Amino acid sequence: MDFEALEEACKACTKCSLHQTRTNCVFGQGSRDAVLMFVGEAPGEKEDLSGIPFVGPAGQHLNKFLAAVGIDREQVYIANILKCRPPHNRDPLPAEQDCCIEYLRAQVKLIQPKIIACLGRIAAMRLITPDFKITRDHGVFHQRGNFLITAVYHPSALLRDPRKNEDMYRDMKAIRQKLDELEK
Ligand code: SF4
Q1: Which of 21, 51, 71, 81 is the 20 to 30 Å CA partner of 30?
Q2: Quick one: pLDDT at residue 28?
Q3: For residue 184, what pLDDT is reported?
Q4: The pLDDT value given to residue 45
């Protein structure tokens, strides 16, 4: 399936009950040639309304870190584990993740990023290891086949606890350094 067909299939998806409450399916945004891909957990209110990932306050906070380390948001790809918003922004249920994860897998296959950065514990628990602890394990890189995978704090966690901003900056700088190494 090509990118357009995948996006169309996702937007028409009724595989889990979240399709009943979504305004928009939030498929993903960014460069299809991205070397770096970010994966969050699920759309929030602003994302559900706009159909674009990470456009709300958390997204704007993420943009500041991207700018601070010199990463162009248009050059990366941003998606979520779930493409539809869970009511009241509750955590995605395992069954919902199981239904939706195939879209993300297909996105990764088509984009073939060299680095995947999970945004927050939900994505990290799904993509790195179920016992991932974000306070303990953020910023660590793991080789998985053709790509490196790591996790950083979810920007909404940083808005709740700005003391974590320093760790986020350090982890984003490390991602930037890996990108530079890949380009050598
Ligand atoms: S969350 Fe995923 S599996 Fe559920 S309806 Fe939306 S696109 Fe389909």
Answers
A1: 21
A2: 98
A3: 83
A4: 95
Mutate to test the pocket of ligand 1, among 7, 82, 107 (most ligand atoms within 8 A of CB): 82
Instruction: Provide the 10 A C-beta neighbour count for residue 105.
Output: 11
Q: Which fold, 3-183? A: Uracil-DNA Glycosylase, subunit E (3.40.470)
- Residue 105 CA to residue 100 CA, distance in Å, equals 9
Query: pLDDT tens, 153-183?
Result: 999 999 999 999 999 999 999 999 999 999 8
CA distance 42 to 151: 16
Map out the domains of the chain as residue ranges.
Answer: 3-183
Whose CA is closest to atom 3 on ligand 1? 100
Report the nearest-CA residue for atom 1 of ligand 1: 84
Token reading at 133: 């602890």
Cross-strand bridge partners of residue 78: 29, 38
Q: How far is the CA of 8 from the centre of ligand 1 (A)?
A: 12
